[in-house]
Amino acid sequence: MASKDSVAVLKGVGKQGAETLKEMNIETIRDLIMTFPYRHEDFQLKDLVDTPHNERVTVEGRVESEPSVLFLGKNKSRTTVQVMVGRHLIKAVFFNQHYVKTKLHIGEIVTLTGKWDRGRQIITVSNHSLGPRTDGADFEPVYSLKGSMHQKTFRKLMRQALDLAKDDLEECIPSKFLAEYKLAPFSEALEWVHFPPDGESLKQARRRFVYEELLMFQLKMQALRKKNREEEGGSFIDYDVDKVRNFVQSLPYELTEAQKRVVNEISKDMKEPFRMNRLLQGDVGSGKTVVAAISLYATVTAGLQGALMAPTEILAEQHANTLAEWFEPFPVTIALLTGSVKGKKRQLILDQLAAGQIDILIGTHALIQPDVQFRKLGLVITDEQHRFGVDQRRVLKDKGYNPDVLFMTATPIPRTLAISAFGEMDVSVIDEMPVGRKEIQTFWMKKDMFGKIVGRMEKELAAGRQAYVICPLIEESDKLDFQNAVELYSQLSSYFHGKYTVGLMHGRLHSDEKEETMRSFTEGEIAVLVSTTVVEVGVNVPNASFMLIYDAERFGLSQLHQLRGRVGRGSEQSYCVLLADPKTEIGKERMTSMTETNDGFVLAEKDLKLRGPGDFFGRKQSGLPEFKMADLIHDYRALETARKDAESLVNSDEFWTSGETACLRRMLEESGALSMARLD
């Protein structure tokens, strides 16, 4: 089969060429033809009237003057000539191409490509040809190359490869989808994506490959999901509906409609014979903890144990105290296991847990130590799931016989990213805030207002409340002129000396010091906490009503929103001040967006558009796939469609047996998804 042949069969490859191609992960003809251009040079003739300023354009015109050459120094020159393009007399400028003086003659036709300066009526020429344009493609592919490989050489190899493989191209997309979405067949789309005859063909080729790429990715996700749901089995949690209803009625406030919907989604999963694998998203303060409590109580009524893992000791303690209060009237035994619990006390908890005398265990990563053994674990809840590694989460899950798993996060993730990064999970969203919670008032102020802001902070402190001051760096940096935590702590300690206690927290402190500082703030011993972003996740200090974020332009929208969510957790009106002098339009847009809305999902969508999916999570290892063609922001409708189609395919018997889907099954096999899913 030609597509499986080595690229060495192509004329002009040679030994060095083959090595360069190998560096680009191209070894076979198929590897080569599936290496798509990252853009196309557009050589279509355009009307200058419709061409925006600074746009690249190709025009045809008549030379109206003798070229003049200005030498600017060694091997540098500027050649200018007047050209009549339609009704426009423009200047064509050639840099370091003084030889064109002898080629261009008055009255002759010339074709020019370059950047159009609309105001000065000048084209800075990058390509030109003498005479009218009679041949040559309107679109020329541009590839990402390595080593000594040139675009011209690569295009020639691509042309050969396509001609060689044209009778050996297998269609993978089922005919019903090709017809329904009017997608170009594989062979045509492949030709068009490399050498499009016109703009529409290129658009249709891209549309087809975006869908195919997203369909393949979603097939992998759905195959894994099917395995999780069916092959592993799971705990059938036969909870007592009446007892759960009584617990919900005993809570200090009524559930929102969003909480009720999410509880129903989780309850339905728990009753199913497959293992729940669900992501619960909820904005800061939306009430995820109460949903976790209801789910844990339902598990206990079925005679099973539950576990709740939090990223920090103080957050684990907070959960334990809250749940103990809610469960006080009910026969539920709760225990807290963190790194601070040692010796006989720890051993007693381990013995009681193994004997089934503890119903719910709450803790940090201490829960995943080898000697922590449950008698019958039915439900695992991981809070702020992105703070734990995949292996840590898996170890906790493996402590039971395929217990149901619920991941919780307060980081609002746009739907497109949730489908991509967590495609094998079901996603529940709490998109409504509890009744009566006051919206945090957010202000954007310039740095010269710092004194006024501290005065406003002092009013809150005088009323008996507390404040956070957040800044991006720990200590002074030569490279970055941003206020740092240590300096700010020193300033505020001096300002409030004798009146209010100021605390300092940052990532370089030992974990015990961090815990102690946070505990002092939680208990009201510290009035002002100066911190880096380590407070972003976790603690609930209802008395904190004021937050100042210094150098706020240094943070992404989602991070700013997470930080802001540390205040506004009590009954008093809370305030967030963004101190920033952004230099870029994006920076200004972020500040404005923060003052306009408190909705984390609205901000997450804006952040995705401003920063792109790669930066959204603020770290490289985000679990997001690398796509050749697809773009998660612009192609979100295709992503939704591909997910729906992949789900229907994977759940149909026909997909696993039909000849028409053999190509998709083989691609799944090659990707490793089928061996992971082990589906018959």
Automatic annotation (TrEMBL):
Gene Ontology molecular function terms on file: DNA helicase activity; hydrolase activity
The protein's Enzyme Commission number: 5.6.2.4
SMART domains: DEXDc, HELICc
Keywords from the UniProt entry: ATP-binding, DNA damage, DNA recombination, DNA repair, DNA-binding, Helicase, Hydrolase, Isomerase, Nucleotide-binding
All copies of domain Helicase C-terminal, residue ranges: 456-609
Uppermost EC category: isomerase
PANTHER family noted in UniProt: ATP-DEPENDENT DNA HELICASE HOMOLOG RECG, CHLOROPLASTIC
Classification via NCBIfam families: PRK10917.1-3, PRK10917.2-2, recG
Entry protein name: ATP-dependent DNA helicase RecG
